[in-house]
Amino acid sequence: MLTEKQVVELLETIYDPFLKKTFKETGAIQEVKINEEKGLVSVKIALAKTGTAEQLQVQQTVVQRLKDAGASSVGLRFAQLPLEERSTNEPIYLAIASGKGGVGKSTVSVNLAVSLARLGKKVGLIDADIYGFSVPDMMGITERPIVRGEKIIPVERFGVKVISMGFFVEDNSPVIWRGPMLGKMLKNFFDEVEWGELDYLLLDLPPGTGDVALDVHTMLPTSKEIIVTTPHPTAAFVAARAGAMAVRTNHEVVGVIENMSYFESQTTGEREYIFGKGGGQKLAEELQTDLLGQLPLGQPDWNDDDFAPSVYGEDHPIGKVYMDIAKKIIAKLR
């Protein structure tokens, strides 16, 4: 028959699905009782969140491990971890959304993640735009994740831990999966990746309000959102749908970022408002949130030795705008 010590050793390597830490790290195993006569092992486990689909998966894992090790039957009770344990370990989930494609949402996601890392934050980035993944190329990432034990180790670049569908597709092949398969892949990005300790986990969502965006809203009921638009009234009108979806699913809209706000001539310093004016401010007012920043049109500097075609340097004029936006986000989410 199993001993209490053996039970703890069997279970302490299981991960809390929300904190991404082992039961040993969180102190999840609160009670173990053995009834040798009945072959019964009773365990009390504390999770960051209870009453979820993730809890059911943990339950199945616990029961299977104990029965494989010789337990005839398993009794299992769940409790919730103390607030201080949950709050100090769980990252802030920040989804970057847009109503339509072509507004620079992925560029914003990448540069916000890098800016937060430059400000000393521990940052992860999920390229959740599974059909149109672009983050690895934008950040100049050439390596692939490795697998360590049962976990995928994300690739780190500019201090940001990155995972993308692009890492698992050969030769830029198109993804032709249906919605449920995409949702499963996205869930793997949360559950199967060893993120370590994070302050922020950013998600570059696909444009619009389709299956993947819905899956994110379901999987991460506490995530917050930033809506990206251009100054054009039509783009802002369409982006309002993404914002309305966040509001309806009780997700806080942290703010609006207006991209491609204007083009500034390096010769004269004059600004040309190529896509019009006012779309970002109007959208922020409609969603009752803040306009976090207005990003001009402009190309990042890069070199062959450190190629990252979409990442702005910290001293680049647009890089400075991203740093200001990142500081506003940190202040709002403290």
Automatic annotation (TrEMBL):
User: Keywords, A to Z?
Assistant: ATP-binding, Cell cycle, Cell division, Hydrolase, Iron, Iron-sulfur, Metal-binding, Nucleotide-binding
| InterPro entries in the cross-refs | FSCA_dom_sf, MIP18-like, Mrp-like_CS, Mrp/NBP35_ATP-bd, NUBPL-like, P-loop_NTPase, YlxH/NBP35
Top-level division of the source organism's lineage: Bacteria
Q: Which GO terms describe its molecular function?
A: 4 iron, 4 sulfur cluster binding; ATP binding; ATP hydrolysis activity; ATP-dependent FeS chaperone activity; metal ion binding
What processes does the entry annotate via GO biological process terms?
Answer: cell division; iron-sulfur cluster assembly
The MIP18 family-like domain sits at 4-53
List the Gene3D superfamilies hit by this protein, alphabetically: Fe-S cluster assembly (FSCA), P-loop containing nucleotide triphosphate hydrolases
Q: Does the keyword rRNA-binding apply?
A: no
Q: Does the keyword Ribosomal protein apply?
A: no
Task: Write out the residues that bind ATP.
Answer: 99-106
Function of this protein? Binds and transfers iron-sulfur (Fe-S) clusters to target apoproteins. Can hydrolyze ATP.
Share what the entry says about its subunit structure, partners included: Homodimer.
The family assignment reads: Belongs to the Mrp/NBP35 ATP-binding proteins family. In the N-terminal section; belongs to the MIP18 family.
- What name does UniProt use for this protein? Iron-sulfur cluster carrier protein
What lineage, starting at the top, does this entry show?
Bacteria, Bacillati, Bacillota, Bacilli, Bacillales
